[in-house]
What we know:
Among the domains are: about 5-205, P-loop containing nucleotide triphosphate hydrolases (Rossmann fold); about 210-215 and about 385-405 and about 420-445 and about 630-685, 3-Layer(aba) Sandwich (Rossmann fold); about 220-350 and about 380, Up-down Bundle (phosphoenolpyruvate carboxylase, domain 3); about 755-845 and about 850-905, Rossmann fold, CATH 3.40.50.10130. Helix content is about 45%, strand content about 15%. The chain is built from 35 helices and 24 strands. A hairpin with a 3-residue loop joins strand 9 (about 340-345) and strand 10. The termini are far apart.
Amino acid sequence: MVQFHEQIITELLEDTNGGLVIxxxxxxxxxxxxxxxxxxxxxxxxxxxLSASLSQKSxxxxxLLDHAAQxxxxxxxxxxxxxxxxxxxxxxAQNRYSLYSSGGVSFITSRILIVDLxxxxxxxxxLAGVVILNAHxxxxxxxxxxxxxxxxxxxxxxxxxxxxxxxxxxxxxxAKAERIMKSLFIRKxxxxxxxxxxxxxxxxxxxxxxxxxxxxMSKYMMGIQKAIIEVxxxxxxxxxxxxxxxxxxxxxxxxxxxxxxxxxRKQLDPIWHTLGKKTKQLVTDLKTLRKLLDYLVRYDAVTxxxxxxxxxxxESFRSVWIFAESSYKIFDYAKKRxxxxxxxxxxxxxxxxxxxxxxKRKVKDINNExxxxxxxxxxxxxxxxxxxxxxxxxxxxxxxxQHRQQKxxxxxxxxxxxxxxxxxxxxxxxxxxxxxxxxxxKHDPSNVMHDEWEKYLLSKVELQxxxxxxKKDAKQPKGIGMLNGVAPVTVGQNSEGSxxxxxxxxxxxxxxxxxxxxxxxxxxxxxxxEKEARSGGIGRGRGRGKSIGKSxxxxxxxxxxxxxxxxxxxxEDMRNRKPDSEEEQKNETEMAAVSGFTxxxxxxYSDKPVLRQHSxxxxxxxxxxxxxxxxxxxxxxxTQQEILDFLKPSVIIVYHPDMTFVREIEVYKxxxxxxxxxxxxxxxxxxxxxxxxxxxxxxxxxxFESLIRQKSIMMxxxxxxxxxxxxxxxxxPLGLSxxxxxxxxxxxxxxxxxxxxxxxxxxxxxxxxxxxxxxxxMRIIPVTLEVGDYILSPLICVERKSIQDLFMSFxxxxxxxxxxxxxxxxxxxxxxxxxxxxxSFSFQSASDIGDDVTPYNITSKLSLLVLxxxxxxILWSRSLHATAEIFASLKANQDEPDLAKATRVGVPSxxxxxxxxxxx
Length: 920
C-alpha cells in the first residue's frame, strides 16, 4: 500500500460521520477501498458496498484475496469473509437476512437494498456502514440518497463513505459536490489530486525511466487530420446560424478536446424536440468526426477506409459533414493510403472531385491480365500503407532484446528487477488493436496488411451481391401514392455507386476475384498453381508488384499464405466449414493444429482457452534482418483490469497514451521500488493524440482547482440531519392551512392526520419518484403489482411513463395492454406522462403538429388511445416534484389502498377466477 492511501484511510476513520473522497484518476481507487474494507471487523456489523461496477467488484475481490494471503489472521475471534458476498435478487429473503446479520462485507444493488429497508427485512441496527462507489453519478433524487436517508433516520451511528475518481464529473453542474454531500448527510470533503504534496512526493521520489518517442505521421495521415478539423469547423459555423446554442467559445482549437459535442447536446437538450433535422444531425456529426480523429491514429489504413465506406453508405443521405467542402479529401487520402488505380498501359489514375478518372503520371509498364471487359483498362495497384508505429514498436522490442543479450554475454546478474528483463507489456486501447499488433509481430507486417486488404475486397463483393439482389427484388414497383408507381431509390440502396465510379468499382471487384482464385488454387493443390505459372501467371499476388507465376519460391509463398489464413480463422468459421474431400480434411486438420484449435470426435472444433505465445520461427525468420524479440504481453485498456500487479512487468510500452494508465504505472513503481521500470511512450508528432493527452491532464487539474474553491466556501448546515431525517420531515401544506382555520367542529380542534400510503411496484424503484414521494412524507409500500405502477387508493391506479418509455410502449403495443388492464380492474385508471425537469414541457413544436391523424405522430397515438379507452385519464407532470404534488392532491379525499387487494388484482385464483373486475 502506498503511504497516501494510509493517510486517506486514517482521515476517514477519524470521522465517524463519514466523508466524500475524490481522487485523481488512476490512483488505485480499488486498492484503497480494499485496504479500507480489510480493516472492517465482523463485531462492528455489516458493511454494504453500493454502486460498484463489474470491473470494480473483481478488482476489489482480487486485492482482498491478495491482502488475506499476505496478512493471515487465524487467531481472529470474528473472522470476516475474505471476498465480499454479492446480494442479488436471486437470493431468498432468509438468505439475505443471514448475510445482513453475519457482520461481513457484501456487494448489493440499490434496488434490492431500498426494498429490504422499506419492508423491514434489513434491521438497521445490524449495519456498521455503507460504502458508495462512483459518487459522481449521484444526485439528490437518486436511490442511494433515498437509502442513506432511511438508514440515518433509523440509526444515526451508521457511517456513510463515498468515493469517486472522476473529478471532471463532480464539477459538471452547479455546486454538485455540495449537493451530493447534503443528500448523503456527509460533512467532510477529502480531495486528493495528483499535485497534492504527499501524492507528488511519493510518486516522484523514485520515478520510472521514461523514453518519449515522437513518430511523424505520414503525409496522407496529416492531410486527413487537417481535413477533419476543417470539416468540424464548418459544422460549428452551421450551428452558429441556428441561434439555438452559444458556441462562441467552442472553437475547434479550444473545444476539440473538451467533449464539446456533449456540451452542445447538453445546451440543446431542453429544446431538443423543437429543433430541426439539420441541427440534430450536426450534433451527431460532431461526434462522428471526433471518432474519425481517434480512429486515424488507432487503426490501420485498410480498416480506416472500410469504416469510412460504411459511414458514407449509411449516413450519406442525412449527414451534413459529408457535403462539406473538405470532406472529399478525407476519402481521397484514405484511398491513397490503401490503393492506386492503374491503366494497362502504365498510366496512374486517381478519382478527382467530379468523379471522373484523370491521368496523374506515367510509371513503368506492368503486366496485368485483363479480367472481364468492364475493367480491361483499369486495375488496382496495392499501396497498403503500414501504420508508422508498427516499425517503431518492432525497433523498440529489438532494442530491449538486444539489451538483454548484452547482459547475458557480460555475465551480469539476471534479476527480474533489472530493466530489460521480465515480460514486456504493450498497452493499447482496445482488443482489436492488441490482436493486430500481435499478428504484425508474429508475422510480417506486410502480410497483416494484405490480410486486411483481402477482407476489404471480399466485403466489396458481398456488398455488390447484396445490391444486385435488391435491384432484382425492386423490379416490380411497390408502394402507394408514388408517381407512376415507381419508388425513388435512396442513396443508401445505391451506396456503392455513390462511393466510387463504375470503373473503380469493377477494378476492386476484379482484384477480389483474383484473391478468390488464389484461395481456390491453395485448396485444390499445387498442380493448378504450376499450370497457371507455366501459362504466364494470374496477375498480382500478395507481394508488392510481384506475381505468383514469376515467384521462384511459389511453394513457400503458398505455405505462408495457408498459415496466415489458418491463423486468421476464428472458432466459428472453423465450426461452420465442411471438408469436401479427404485432402481438404487433412489440410483443415493441419490448419487447426497451427491455429490452436482441436477437433473433437463429432467433427466440431472446440475453442478451449489456451495460453497464446509468440512463435517467431515460422514467419519472422523468412524476413530480412529478422531479430529475436522478448516475451510480450498485450493489454487492452478498455478492459479496465489491473494487469500491472499480476504481471509485474519491467518494461512497459504505452502504444496509446492514456492519463489513467500513466498514473497506474506511477503507483505500481511506488509500490515496487525494487523493480526498475522502463516506460516507452509512442506519440504521433503534431497529432491530436498528443493534444488530447495533455488536455486531459489540464482538465483534471482545473477540476480539482474548482473543487478546492468550492470546499472553501461550502455551506453545509450543522443540523441538517435533524431537519431532513425522519418520515415526518415534509409537512403537508394542507395541514398547515387546516390548523389555522376556525371551524365549529369541537371548538376548532383538528383530527389527527393519517399518514399517506402509496403502493409501489418493485420495478419502479429504478426511477427516482419513490424517493421524492418519501420526501413528501408518504409511506412507500413496495410490492409486485400485475396491474399499474402506483396504487393511490382502492379506486385510483396510475401507470407512469417517462417520455422515452412512452414512445417505446406505443411502438411495442405494451401501453394498449396496460390501459386495458387498468380500465378492467380500477374505476379511475390514470396514465401519468412525466417530463424531465430540465427539458421543455411539450412533445413537439407547434409547427410540427398537423391537422390529420397519422400513424407515426405521438399526438395522434394518444388521441386514438383516449378514444378507445374513454375512462382513461391522462395526467401531465413537469417533473418528479410536480408528480408528488399531484399524487398528494389525488389522495386528499380518498381512502388508503389495501395491500392485500392490490397484490391480488390481475392474478387468477386457484379456481381461475379473477377478482375486482369492474367492466360494465
